[in-house]
Structures are given as structure tokens and as C-alpha cells.
Fold this sequence. Notes:
The chain is of the alpha/beta class. The chain has ten helices and six strands, in the order βαααααβαβαβαβαβα. A six-stranded parallel sheet has the order 3-2-1-4-5-6, with helices on both faces. Helix 1 crosses helix 4 and helix 5 runs parallel beside helix 10 (about 200-215). The model is unreliable at about 1-5 (pLDDT under 50).
Amino acid sequence: MTPLARTDHRFTVGFDLDLTLVDSRPGIRAAYEALVAATGTPIDVDLVIGRLGPPLKQELRNWFPEEDVERANAVYLAGYPEHGILPSPAMPGAREAVAAVRELGGRAIVVTAKNPRNARLHLEHLDIRADELVGDLWAEAKAVALREHGASVYVGDHVGDVRGAHTAGAVAVAVPTGPYGAAELRAEGADVVLEGGLAEFPAWLRAHRAGYAAESTVPRA
């Protein structure tokens, strides 16, 4: 992880990857199907796709005995560049959401539970231009990277992303493009739910930054 330079005072927005910036469901499906073919272990791939978010090893423990999890993890990760990248499109509004941060003078970082190599391949393939990428962090653990990079906003699709944002003291912006609907994300405590997905994010961010700027100019008694 690259520490945030102390001289860089730009505001920072963090984004989750899977089902926030990237619709990785087709690629993950293909990667799991390749894992089934390689190991002979039956996996209910539809069930897996319906609950994306937690770390890979956590899911693999539902299908493999503990002594085989590391091997299954290695097989899946090795095959992911071949099977997982090309089928996976950007989520609607993803490039524009990240670009909006930079257009307003901020930094956009991606903090994800995904393996960082494979996460970077997604970003490069889809031309999503984040300033930093941090992988292998899930739920509350994402706060480590969000704090280190000074993120004041974190955008994600999972209730774990809401918890991670709050643990870091960041505004939790949620999009109902993953396994949870708007009501569930609000119930978890999301500060903002963009029901139309990331397409609504640039307008929200402009209003949020305008409000922040106005508040910072109010004289203190």
C-alpha cells in the first residue's frame, strides 16, 4: 500500500470494485466454472454469484475442506486473468463517477476485497482511472486503507462496505447494484443510497462538495 503524501491535501473518495465499479458476475461465474472443472468439486455457482462481497477464501470454505482451501484459492486466482476479466463490463456510470472525483480536484482510490492483481486487471481493461488501488481488505478492515489515504467518502454496494466506511469515519454512500437493496443498505446505516446507481454519483458529489465548501467558510464564533 502506498501511503498518502502528507503534502497532498486533496479530498479523497474510495470506491469498492465488484458490483460497484465492475459487473464482475460474468467473469466470476466463468472463473468458478473453471475451478469446478480443475478440481472436480461441485459448486453452486448461482448461489455464489448471489452473495458476492466477502473474501474468496471465505466462500471457498463453503465448498472445500479446510485443508484444500489454499489450493483451491491458488487455482482460482491463477485462472482468473484468463476467465474473469474480458466478460466483465463496467457498471453504468463507473468511469464517470471516478472521473467526477478528479474533475473536482480530488483523488479516487479503489479499496476492495479482491486480489489486487486481478482488481488492477479489471481497472486497466475497462480504463477506470483510479489514483490508488488497495486489495485484500473486507468490511471493517477496509477502514485501514481509507484512513491511510484520508478518504472522506466510501462508495460500495455491500453492507460490509457501509461498515467499513463508518469504521473509517467516512460518509457511507451505497448503491443497490449488488446483493442488497436500498432498504437493506439504509437499515445497515448507509448515509446516502443512490437508488439509480453510480450514474447519480457525480451530481451528489458536486452537491456534497459545495455544501462542504459553504460550511468551511462560515465564521466561527
